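2024-03-11 09:14:02 INFO worker-7 job=invfold-0412 stage=load source=structure_tokens
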């Protein structure tokens, strides 16, 4: 990984402290737990993951990987235990755990999986709550911030976590925006989005007016578009949420589909407006952003942070400087709300009811996921700042997008209903029917699912 040069910002001289203050926040708390000695007499602890290559790799690949290898060895020797590493063959983690139980096989004591799969295991009483594990301090942000962990929190207890102390992989969130600093500021001479955000002028109108000024279509072989997107539904949902629209709302104790609200419909209409302009790159090739052919990119955060050298469309390997910013705020949006959200394929570590004793699992987890030498809680932030983020403004925005993401109820809605919503919203950009008609077609399916899962009406 190459180290990032810091390019001085021309316009902004004040950090975005007003927004940091307005959103409240969770204090980063260090753990203060006693050292425990234990001899497990060679007991097997299985570490499971759908992306095992991110946690167990050959030595010398990168510093975080080497840190993990050293940690496995250290914990195994300290407690006289054996780690085994299991790579899931697909994303169907809940079915995988059930098959292992039926076959009398050992179950991973921690298992990296998609939140929807985690919820399925929770419904089957096959998970352990972190709150009930000895040696686990849930007042620490080691396991993730409360907002970040909402997709794994049920009946007041947390059933999944993301190891914020580890430096890789970086925690992720959905529906953010990246911008090409060299294009927006240096070539097109526009105000930095940081400045507009700090002045509370980063809104739909400002962005709409800026798009022609960050677009250059004069050269047919080297066009520069103002805006692109990772996928259609990503753009639509970002616009909805930036206007305070929510996928699920609580109406006097009853959970209901929220995308039929005026705020949500206005968001869909705004996304349509952006998509239908000549300034929008409809090619759906994110490499265009990395190649300096798009000024703004609506996407998920992993596009800006993924350390995967084989993916040549990642901007981290191509651009001299890109920035992070929330999607522009709609007229009903609230500054200080970070507009990012959890999403269907977001991953967490679950703690299945394994063959290992619960107290033993808590002890091993606490040792295994402790900060690496020379780091502290939430070490991913320092790693991202050094290797992936160009300036302090983007760093503040990036870390808050992660920490204060909104919960989109993906696990509750289930894969089928969730993907149906995405499909309808994705086609809404080009559909001639009204936005209200599009979301109303989803209302019955979503509310039926919510009645069963949350309203006890099924």
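2024-03-11 09:14:09 INFO worker-7 stage=emit residues=458
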């Amino acid at each position: 990984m190459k180290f990032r040069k810091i390019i001085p910002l021309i316009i902004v001289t004040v950090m975005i402290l007003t927004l940091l203050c307005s959103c409240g926040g969770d204090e980063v708390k260090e753990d203060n737990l006693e050292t425990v000695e234990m001899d497990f007499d060679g007991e097997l602890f299985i570490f499971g993951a759908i992306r095992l290559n991110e946690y167990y790799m050959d030595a010398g690949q990168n510093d975080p990987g080497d840190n993990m290898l050293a940690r496995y060895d250290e914990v195994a020797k300290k407690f006289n235990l054996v780690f085994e590493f299991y790579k899931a063959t697909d994303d169907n983690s809940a079915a995988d755990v059930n098959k292992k139980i039926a076959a009398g096989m050992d179950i991973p004591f921690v298992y990296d999986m998609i939140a929807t799969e985690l919820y399925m295991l929770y419904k089957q009483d096959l998970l352990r709550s972190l709150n009930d594990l000895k040696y686990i301090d849930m007042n620490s942000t080691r396991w993730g911030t409360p907002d970040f962990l909402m997709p794994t929190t049920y009946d007041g207890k947390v059933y999944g976590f993301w190891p914020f102390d580890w430096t890789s992989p970086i925690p992720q969130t959905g529906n953010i925006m990246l911008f090409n600093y060299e294009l927006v500021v240096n070539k097109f001479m526009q105000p930095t989005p940081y400045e507009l955000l700090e002045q509370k002028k980063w809104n739909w109108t400002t962005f709409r007016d800026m798009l022609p000024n960050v677009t250059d279509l004069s050269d047919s072989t080297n066009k520069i578009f103002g805006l692109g997107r990772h996928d259609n539904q990503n753009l639509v949902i970002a616009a909805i949420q930036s206007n305070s629209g929510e996928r699920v709302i609580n109406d006097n104790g009853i959970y209901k589909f929220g995308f039929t609200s005026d705020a949500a419909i206005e968001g869909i209409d705004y996304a349509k407006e952006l998509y239908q302009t000549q300034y929008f790159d409809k090619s759906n090739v994110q490499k265009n952003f990395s190649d300096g052919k798009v000024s703004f990119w609506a996407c998920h955060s992993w596009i800006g942070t993924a350390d995967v050298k084989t993916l040549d469309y990642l901007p981290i390997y191509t651009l001299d400087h890109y920035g992070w910013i929330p999607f522009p705020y709609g007229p009903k949006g609230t500054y200080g709300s970070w507009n990012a959200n959890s999403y269907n394929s977001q991953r967490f570590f679950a703690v299945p009811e394994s063959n290992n004793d619960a107290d033993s699992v808590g002890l091993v987890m606490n040792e295994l996921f402790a900060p690496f030498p020379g780091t502290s809680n939430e070490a991913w932030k320092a790693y991202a700042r050094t290797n992936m983020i160009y300036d302090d403004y983007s760093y503040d925005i990036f870390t808050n997008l992660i920490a204060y993401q909104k919960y989109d109820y993906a696990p509750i809605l289930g894969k089928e209903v969730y993907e149906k919503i995405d499909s309808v919203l994705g086609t809404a950009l080009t559909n001639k029917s009204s936005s209200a008609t599009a979301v109303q077609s989803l209302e019955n399916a979503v509310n039926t699912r919510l009645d069963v899962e949350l309203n006890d009406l099924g």
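2024-03-11 09:14:09 INFO worker-7 stage=report msg="The CA atoms of residues 212 and 279 lie 6 Å apart."
2024-03-11 09:14:10 INFO worker-7 job finished
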